[in-house]
Amino acid sequence: MVILNLVSIEIIKGGGFSLTGEITLPGDKSISHRAIILGSISKGPTTVRGFLKCDDTLSTVNALRMLGVSIQIGPEIVRIKGKGLFGLREPEDVIDAGNSGTTARLLTGLLSPQGFFSVITGDRYLKARPMERVVVPLKLMGAKISGRENAKRLPLAIEGGKLSAISYHLPVASAQVKSAILLAGLYLGEETEVIETIPTRDHTERMLSYLGIDVERKDSAVRIKGGRDPEGGEITVPADISSAAFFMVAALINPGSELLIKGVGINPLRTGIIEILRDMGGKIEILNEREESGEPVGDVFVKSSTLKPTEIKGEIIPRAIDELPVVAVAACFAEGTTIIRDAKELRVKETDRIKAMTTELKKLGADIEELEDGMVIKGRGTLRGARCSSWGDHRIAMALAVAGTRAEGTTEIEDADCVSVSFPGFFELIRRLRERTKSQIE
Ligand code: S3P
């Protein structure tokens, strides 16, 4: 990595290389956040294996430490001394969620029913993201929250207090909003209900059940009856399918690849990426399916494939939302027109991912256009290396790196150190895989 004027630049050698052998990837980010939060308010101790140590999850760890929880991060195991539902204490300072939307939104739910005052803020990207989606339902429950732009943006000040249960139809498909409401509902003796029109990741529901809380799921409704401490326990976090997605696409578009990605979380509400890539002709197999800590896990075997274009829209979008930037890269190598629609949420992620991907892939020679709610990509089977920018967004940086592996020439990615938000070691792993190919040839 080269650091010029405090902007880190990663250089990706193009021309293609075969990704072969086995890899094990870091733990799932969504599940890691939830393990820290639920472990902290459980009755007994909790141990977490496979915890993802990255900027985002460490923001959650720091927050819970400020709330009085002892969390020890060892090389293999994270140990949390749960305080029970009512054991958290008032933080002495503002809680900084950094770049992490999950930290900010889930903690807004957790802090609303507490008997103390707290303030949550974030970095400049997070401060620009919408918070009213959590504030509105929590206020309906009686939460006292104020903040910038009429509580639409961080920082938010939460005057903790007694809440009451609601039944709430989610107006946006968001697991963070659903989870914030469920966390607040965990403090109430009555039943809180969240109704989704399009299903979103259910890691919170699964982990609550795993820790002994009554969560009923029927059709599109989730109901929680709280008032009882979750039981601490042993939680194993699978590898993050959102991180695996970059290697799936890299293996598909780089000739001669045969890559086994071990122990990946394959929760059906996260496997939209596998369905999309298979639909594009990607050879992807799931082996050794099993369950760990209430979550489905499997090994993912990927072989280079000739990709064809597709249309992606509707209910699959929330099940693949974080992977759409790298789907756009796959589409550049699928000859013909790929269309992504119904994905307006991409505009309010860490950055506007529709604008970021169209702008940056154009620099690499892609034929790609923005739609209000998606992208149209005319795949030509090639890209050419260029200098481009991550826009400070980890998933844009990694998607561009995948494009760079197969582009002609060299791709330079500015502001690339943001990958530490979800995947420290990403670029080292790309280099290691390239070295592996070289040593096979020698
Ligand atoms: C997440 C939910 C999704 C996802 C984000 C993580 C979670 O966000 O994009 O990366 O852990 O609940 P939304 O809830 O905003 O859809």
Write the layout of secondary structure elements.
Layout: E1 2-4, E2 7-13, E3 20-24, H1 29-40, E4 45-49, H2 55-66, E5 70-73, E6 77-81, E7 95-96, H3 101-111, E8 117-121, H4 124-127, H5 132-140, E9 144-147, H6 148-151, E10 153-159, E11 167-169, H7 175-185, E12 191-195, H8 203-210, E13 214-218, E14 221-225, E15 234-236, H9 241-253, E16 258-265, H10 272-279, E17 283-292, E18 295-303, E19 311-312, H11 324-332, E20 336-340, H12 353-363, E21 367-371, E22 374-379, E23 387-389, H13 394-406, E24 410-414, H14 426-441
Parallel strand pairs: 3-16, 4-15, 7-8, 11-12, 19-20, 23-24
Antiparallel strand pairs: 1-2, 2-24, 4-6, 5-6, 8-10, 9-10, 12-14, 13-14, 16-18, 17-18, 20-22, 21-22
The structure holds shikimate-3-phosphate.
Could you describe the 3D structure shown?
It is a single chain. The chain is of the alpha/beta class. It folds into 2 domains: 9-27 and 238-441, Enolpyruvate transferase domain (UDP-n-acetylglucosamine1-carboxyvinyl-transferase, Chain); 29-236, Enolpyruvate transferase domain (UDP-n-acetylglucosamine1-carboxyvinyl-transferase, Chain, Alpha-beta prism), CATH 3.65.10.10. The chain has 14 helices and 24 strands. Helix 9 (241-253) packs parallel to helix 11 (324-332). The protein starts with a strand and ends with a helix. The relative contact order is 0.14.
